[in-house]
């Protein structure tokens, strides 16, 4: 059995033609690592729907196995069905299925209150052909009431038909391994691939992490604060922290690494090279 960890890269849909050119340039460069798949996020509430579709189409045309993200909150069954049909026509074989967070101002959650219901719906409507990825949270989801219920709900997504999971990012490998171990004890045996967020900007990272519940260890946070106006030092420190984390994960047998690229080539490329992945020409 081939146990080489698989790479995957996540992108977000750009809003401008220049952003699109940048995205495809980043995709071209990172595709040279021959990732298992790439994925394109989707703004819950529908804000980036066309952008996601276009980016997915472009990446598929460029030869990448591409997984659109779909989100359930604030949407209808018909909308999900027609969106997935459109993706199937493009040749999509994998989806990242999420609940999503309601954009500010929206209060109506709609039919899909949790990702579990959307996973079940996709399975019921489209059978077993699509590979379904779901989200998982080693540092726990901000709405989680306890580790035990979080695992229970995670298991329900798996029982509804998820094939594998990608985690929210984290900087403490122990939290990931504890989560995987507890998942296994709860009877969850799908691959749980760590999501890896390169560190490139202090303010953005703090804002994201506060919103999504990812913990930044105090020693990392303090150094980032110290370097926040010293770009080269921050970049160098960020690369070292994330490279070390990836080595730790790989040394302990993770099934893959999923990079949140933020549509940037350099940090992801540098980390992948440092941890031993080679680009083809
Ligand atoms: P769920 O699995 O539904 O869980 C959400 C919360 O509800 C958890 O606290 C869970 O414990 C709880 N819960 C679950 N089921 C129940 C239940 N039956 N009763 C009570 N509580 C329950 N967001 C986007 O908008 N677009 C994206 O493209 C996107 N991509 C992402 C990619 C990855 C890999 C990850 C990890 C997250 C992504 N997100 C995205 C963010 C995601 O939408 C949010 O984290 C969201 O808050 C939770 O989504 P989920 O699918 O994990 O939800």
Description:
The protein is an alpha/beta fold. The protein has one domain: TIM Barrel, CATH 3.20.20.220. 47% of the residues lie in helices and 15% in strands. The protein has 10 helices and 8 strands. It has helices at residues 17-31, 49-61, 77-90, 115-126, 147-160, 173-185, 202-212, 218-226, 231-251, 266-274; strands at 6-11, 37-40, 66-71, 94-98, 131-136, 164-169, 192-196, 256-260. The chain has an 8-stranded parallel beta barrel with strand order 1-2-3-4-5-6-7-8, surrounded by 5 helices. Strand 3, helix 3 (77-90) and strand 4 form a beta-alpha-beta unit. Helix 4 (115-126) packs parallel to helix 5 and helix 9 packs across helix 10 (266-274). The longest helix is centred in the C-terminal third of the chain and has 21 residues, at 231-251. The chain is globular. The mean pLDDT is 94. The chain binds flavin-adenine dinucleotide. The site of flavin-adenine dinucleotide has 25 residues, from strand 3, strand 4, helix 4, helix 5 and strand 6.
């Amino acid at each position: 059995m081939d146990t080489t960890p698989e790479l995957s890269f996540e992108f977000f849909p750009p809003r401008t033609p220049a952003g699109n050119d940048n995205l495809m340039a980043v995709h071209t460069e990172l595709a040279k690592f021959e990732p298992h798949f790439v994925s394109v996020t989707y703004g819950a509430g529908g804000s980036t729907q066309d952008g996601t579709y276009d980016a997915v189409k472009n990446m598929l045309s460029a030869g990448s196995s591409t997984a659109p993200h779909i989100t359930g909150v604030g949407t209808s069954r018909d909308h999900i069905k027609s969106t997935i049909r459109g993706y199937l026509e493009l040749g999509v074989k994998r989806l990242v299925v999420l609940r999503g967070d309601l954009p500010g101002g929206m209060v109506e959650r709609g039919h899909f209150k949790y990702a579990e219901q959307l996973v079940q719906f996709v399975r019921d409507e489209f059978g077993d052909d699509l590979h379904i990825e779901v989200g998982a949270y080693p540092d726990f989801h901000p709405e989680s009431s306890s580790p035990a219920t979080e695992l229970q709900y995670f298991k329900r997504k798996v029982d509804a038909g998820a094939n594998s999971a990608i985690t929210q990012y984290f900087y403490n490998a122990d939290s990931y391994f504890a989560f995987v171990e507890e998942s296994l004890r709860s009877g969850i045996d799908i691959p749980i691939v760590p999501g890896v967020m390169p560190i490139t900007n202090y303010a953005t990272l703090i804002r994201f992490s506060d919103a999504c519940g990812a913990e930044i260890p105090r020693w990392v946070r303090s150094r980032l604060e110290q370097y926040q106006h010293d770009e080269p030092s921050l970049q160098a420190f960020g690369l070292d922290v994330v490279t070390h984390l990836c080595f730790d994960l790989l040394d302990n047998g993770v099934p893959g690494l999923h990079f949140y690229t933020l549509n940037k080539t350099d940090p992801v490329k540098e980390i992948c090279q440092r941890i031993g992945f080679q680009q083809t020409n």
